[in-house]
TrEMBL record:
Its cofactor is Zn(2+). PROSITE patterns: ARGE_DAPE_CPG2_1. It comes from Candidatus Flavonifractor intestinigallinarum. GO terms for molecular function: hydrolase activity; metal ion binding. This is M20 family metallopeptidase. It comes from the Bacteria. The lineage of its organism: Bacteria, Bacillati, Bacillota, Clostridia, Eubacteriales. The active site is at 89, 150 (proton acceptor). PANTHER family: ACETYLORNITHINE DEACETYLASE, BLL0789 PROTEIN. Residues 187-281 form the Peptidase M20 dimerisation domain.
Length: 392
C-alpha cells in the first residue's frame, strides 16, 4: 500500500493551492441555516466541483431548508459504498463575512465563519476522492451526503429521513465534522434535541364559571414534576423542561399549555427510556377532561460506540500509522451531529474527520491550515485500504 499512499500524498501536496481557494470560496459564501439562498450557493459550488470530478450529483430539495446534496463517485462498482458525510450550513448570521472574512494568520490558522465547522471538511472529502482517482483506485463507490440544515438539527425539514435513506447499504461512513487539536477522533456522541409537550384543557371564565374549566397549566405543572424526576445526570440522561407557555390571563382557566423540553442521552437505550416516560406522561392525565400530545420528531440520534464504530476507528488508527500521519486517539463528546443518523441505521461511522481547530460557533473560530492537507491524505488512505471485512 505504500505506493498508493505516496501517490495520494503527492497529489495533495500538488493541489494545496486549489484546496485553499475552495475553502476560502466556501467560507466567504454565507450560509447560515436559515439563509436558504446562501446554502443553495454553497451547494452549487460543491456540485460543480463534484461534476468536474466526474461524480453523479443530485439535490434532494427541502421545502423549508437547504437541500441535501448527494454526489456519487465510481457508482458503477457493485460493492457497498463508503459514505462521506458533511453539512453546508453554519450558525452565523448574515453580514458576518464582511466583519470576519476568510484569512490565514501568521501562525498558520484560518479564520472566518464556518472556517472550522465545517466547510473545510467538505474540501477534504472532495479532494480525498480526487486523490484516489489520481492514484487509479476504484475498488468501491464513494457517496457524499451533505446536509443543508444540520446546525439547527434539521428542525424545519425531513433531511434526517432523507439522509438515512441515502445511507442505507453503506459499508461505513466518515463524517468530516470539526477535528480536534489533540488528534482525537470522535467515536461517540450524545443524542438529544427539542421535544414539545402540549397539554389541552377546557377554557372558562375564572370568575363566572370556574367549575366549567379544566386547567391545562395545572396538568402541565404536574407533568413537569413527574418528568424532571426521570433525570439521571450522572448517567448522562437529561430531560429539561426549559420553557412553559400557556393561558391568556389570570381571569381565564387555561385551555392549553406548551412545555418545551430539551433531551440529552448517551445511548439509544436512554433515548427509548426518556421517550417512554414522555409518552406515559402524555397518556395519563390527572386533571379530568385534559389530554396531552408529544412531538419528538426533531430529536437527533446519539452516536453509539458500537463494535462496528470501534472497528472502523482501529482501521483509521492503523492507517494513520502506516501512511505517516502519526498516532491518533478516540473519545466521546457531548455535541450532536449527523453521525448519529448513520450509526442508528447500522453503519459504522467515525466523526471529527475535518480540519483541526478550536472555537467553533464563536467569532474566534479558527482552523489549522496544515491539517487540511494531512487530514485529506489520511481520509484518502483510509478509504483506499478499507476492506469489506474491516469489522472482523
Amino acid at each position: 500500500m505504500k505506493e498508493i499512499y505516496e501517490v495520494i500524498r503527492s497529489y495533495v501536496d500538488e493541489h494545496k493551492q486549489p484546496m485553499l481557494q475552495l475553502w476560502e470560496a466556501l467560507v466567504n459564501t454565507e450560509s447560515g441555516s436559515r439563509n436558504l439562498d446562501g446554502v443553495a450557493k454553497v451547494t452549487d459550488i460543491l456540485r460543480r466541483e463534484m461534476e468536474d470530478m466526474g461524480m453523479r450529483t443530485r439535490v434532494i430539495p427541502m421545502e423549508n431548508a437547504g437541500g441535501v446534496l448527494v454526489g456519487e463517485w465510481n457508482w458503477e462498482s457493485g460493492r457497498a459504498p463508503l459514505l462521506f458525510l458533511g453539512h453546508m450550513d453554519t450558525v452565523f448570521p448574515d453580514g458576518t463575512v464582511e466583519k470576519n472574512p476568510f484569512r490565514v494568520d501568521e501562525e498558520g490558522f484560518a479564520h472566518g465563519p464556518g472556517v472550522l465547522d465545517m466547510k473545510p471538511g467538505l474540501v477534504i472529502a472532495l479532494y480525498a476522492i480526487r486523490a484516489l482517482a489520481a492514484a487509479g483506485w476504484k475498488e468501491r463507490p464513494i457517496k457524499c451526503i451533505f446536509a443543508g440544515d444540520e446546525e439547527n438539527l434539521h428542525m424545519f425539514s425531513n433531511a434526517k429521513q432523507a439522509m438515512q435513506q441515502e445511507a442505507l447499504g453503506g459499508l461505513a461512513a466518515f463524517n468530516f465534522e470539526t477535528g480536534y487539536l489533540d488528534d482525537n477522533f470522535v467515536v461517540g456522541r450524545k443524542g438529544g434535541g427539542p421535544v414539545r409537550l402540549t397539554v389541552h384543557g377546557v377554557a372558562a371564565h375564572s370568575g363566572n364559571a370556574p367549575e366549567k374549566g379544566r386547567s391545562a397549566i395545572l396538568e402541565a405543572a404536574r407533568k413537569v414534576v413527574e418528568l424532571e424526576a426521570c433525570n439521571d445526570l450522572e448517567a448522562g440522561r437529561l430531560l429539561n423542561c426549559g420553557k412553559i407557555t400557556g393561558g391568556i390571563g389570570e381571569n381565564t382557566i387555561p385551555d392549553q399549555c406548551v412545555v418545551q423540553i430539551g433531551l440529552r442521552f448517551n445511548t439509544s437505550r436512554q433515548k427509548e427510556e426518556l421517550l417512554m416516560a414522555l409518552e406515559k406522561s402524555a397518556a395519563s392525565c390527572t386533571v379530568p377532561d385534559t389530554w396531552a400530545e408529544v412531538d419528538a420528531s426533531r430529536l437527533m440520534d446519539c452516536m453509539d460506540t458500537t463494535p462496528g464504530v470501534e472497528a472502523l476507528f482501529h482501521h483509521l488508527k492503523r492507517t494513520a500509522q502506516d501512511c505517516g500521519y502519526g498516532p491518533i486517539g478516540s473519545f466521546q463528546v457531548g455535541g450532536l451531529s449527523d453521525s448519529g443518523l448513520t450509526v442508528a441505521v447500522g453503519i459504522p461511522t467515525v466523526c471529527g474527520m475535518g480540519v483541526k481547530g478550536e472555537g467553533n460557533h464563536t467569532p474566534n473560530e479558527r482552523a489549522e491550515v496544515a491539517s487540511l492537507y494531512s487530514r485529506c491524505v489520511l481520509a484518502a488512505c483510509a478509504a483506499a485500504t478499507l476492506e469489506d471485512s474491516f469489522a472482523g
